[in-house]
Specification:
alpha+beta; globular; 416 residues
């Protein structure tokens, strides 16, 4: 009998774990409350894959070239200063050896999902609770089938919590843990210009950002910054971070529903800060949305008995180091290798090795990403005055380069 793992959460972390654990010789079932495979996510947008994640994902695909055909290169990481009063920009830092690739969340998820054997993901299954057996050898998971309201039970050897930054499974072990609000939110959008490649807006933005299609642009203003890059299939991904008090979360999500009045106000504010060409892209984007930016202080442990945390459940992070998806993919790969190496009969040793391998890395990356965000948003740090790109010295802005992320080029020995 193969050992059995039950993963809660069918996002990229959960689907990645399915791939890694199947390769390790496990049976896997993934519970996902969404009722059908995601064709395109209303709150999904762009992401960057580092070279290690690219290699891992390719190892899970029957045709590794599919990853390249559904992503675009991000070979340049560039930080630019923006003076909104004088309406000028200039380069602060440039790294021509970045070697990430840009993907749309839904494209990457579809790629990973379609490469799985059939019937791994149980769509429309809402996780309710779990119970570890007295002898700690199994875990019973209860879920509701949303179409029928039927409650079912699944027994497995391992429960993988891939249920995101607001993880209810994590909360059962750490009931006092609260997410830390960063002090800012992010307006996000994907501008689709298919069929309008020669429009004034697209010609203008390509003139202002001539290396779109290979460059990850960061524009740094006073107490704000934006991110801009191209996605496959004639789309542009943009993010604009805005300092503001913590909004009230209306539901169990860090994505906030926005009204047309909020969008119109955001458009007016953008005109005061950003270049006209960028503002036009923002204003012509359909359905922009607002992400509330949270993280947590690093956890001291990420497994209990036969329950293990992966992805944002294990390390909620701010997005400034492009780590969230990359950490999820690497969590899955390392967990799979630990399980294959130790065997199901030594599950505790496998989970301990996973924790020992990943915790020191993700802890430093979460804190570094937090620091990058505070610097770019002009917020005070204990050892750092509020950053203003108009008056900064070169040593001030070297820290915001992606390549200075701890363990940036690190490959765990398990994966070599």
């Amino acid at each position: 009998m193969k050992p059995k793992a039950v993963a809660v959460g069918g996002s990229i972390a959960g689907v990645s774990c399915a791939h890694a654990l199947i390769l390790a010789g496990w049976d896997v079932v993934v519970l996902e409350k969404t009722c059908e495979p995601i064709k395109g996510s209303p709150t999904g947008a762009g992401l960057g894959l580092d070279p290690l994640s690219q290699r891992i994902i390719q190892s899970w695909l029957d045709d590794p070239e599919l990853l390249y055909s559904s992503t675009l290169p991000l070979t340049i990481d560039m930080n630019q200063a923006r003076d909104s009063e004088k309406k000028v920009s200039w380069t602060l830092t440039r790294d021509d050896n970045f070697n990430f690739r840009a993907a749309h969340w839904a494209d990457l998820h579809g790629l990973l999902y379609n490469a799985l054997p059939p019937n791994i993901i149980l769509w429309g299954h809402l996780f309710l609770s779990f119970c570890i057996s007295e002898d700690k050898t199994s875990v019973k998971i209860k879920a509701k089938v949303l179409q029928t309201d039927e409650e079912i039970e699944i027994v497995g050897d391992l429960l993988v919590a891939a249920d995101g930054s607001l993880s209810s499974i994590r909360q059962s072990f750490l009931p006092g843990l609260k997410l830390r609000y960063s002090g800012y939110c992010a307006w996000r959008g994907v501008f689709d210009f298919s069929g309008n490649e020669n429009s004034e807006t697209v010609v203008g933005i390509r003139s202002s950002y001539p290396e779109l299609g290979k460059c990850l642009y960061f524009d740094l203003g006073s107490e704000t910054h934006s991110v801009f890059y191209e996605l496959p299939n004639k789309r542009l991904n943009w993010i604009w971070y805005v300092n503001q008090p913590e909004p009230e979360l209306k539901r169990n999500s860090v994505t906030m529903k926005v009204s047309s009045e909020m969008i119109q106000k955001m458009h007016r504010e953008a005109e005061k800060v950003w270049a006209p060409e960028f503002v036009r892209v923002i204003q012509e984007t359909k359905d922009p949305f607002l992400n509330l930016i949270y993280d947590t202080d690093p956890l001291e442990q990420i497994f209990w008995d036969n329950v293990v945390l992966v992805g944002d459940a294990a390390h909620p992070t701010t997005p400034h180091g492009a780590r969230s998806t990359n950490m999820s993919v690497l969590d899955a790969a390392v967990l799979g290798k630990c399980l294959a190496k130790n065997g199901a009969e030594n599950l505790q040793a496998a989970l301990r090795e996973y924790q020992t391998t990943r915790l020191p890395v993700v802890s430093k990356q979460v804190l570094h990403s937090r620091r990058m965000g505070r610097i770019k948003q002009g917020l005070v740090l204990p050892d750092h005055e509020a950053f203003d790109p108009k008056n900064s010295r070169s040593e001030d802005y070297q820290e915001v380069q992606q390549k200075n992320m701890p363990f940036f080029d690190d490959v765990p020995l398990l994966l070599i």
